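--- STAGE predict ---
source: upstream dedup step, 1 unique chain passed
mode: sequence only
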Amino acid sequence: MAIHEIAGQGFTHQYLWNCAEALLSQTETKSPTDGYFAMAGMLLAYFAYEAYLNLVGPRIDAEAWKNERDFFSKPPYRGTQGKLQRICEKIGIEVDRGKRPYQTIRDLGRLRDFLAHGKPDTYAFEMDVEKGKEPDMFHDLQIYNMVNRKNADRALKDTEEFIEYLHARIPAKRNGDDTLFRGKALKFPLALASGGTKQT
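--- STAGE serialize ---
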């Protein structure tokens, strides 16, 4: 029997991105299922963005990611937006936070927080209703304002655009030749591995 030494890496951002694309490419059925696919796809697009930052972050600033939980738990680098800020500072780029695609990323972060914390969404309103018509009883539910086909399409487009924007700028700002930064960020394989027979 031969002993093999194998080393590899899975690319979580790619798993998540593939799932987001699969969910958001579903044909609309004009049923509640459309909203479920849109919500899950939008959330996974945001998770892919978070995973991408965690993929490139250690290559850009190994020291910050070495103690990631501590470093990114306090200002000015708190949370996912702090990670983006740190990466941008290290590679010397600025993100226009006042327009798309960043605004979409921000909105997806809000959706993520809304769903992750799972608090009841209470509301009250008055509305005029024509005689013989029924009022829309769920008009003010936040989830319906956050999750719809238009926002889902925008989430997929803008998340891809934003990640690829970052990915294209990183190699020029780094020293060294890292194969990670060749090609498109969202066209990775799911994993890479190499190995060989161990000499005994």
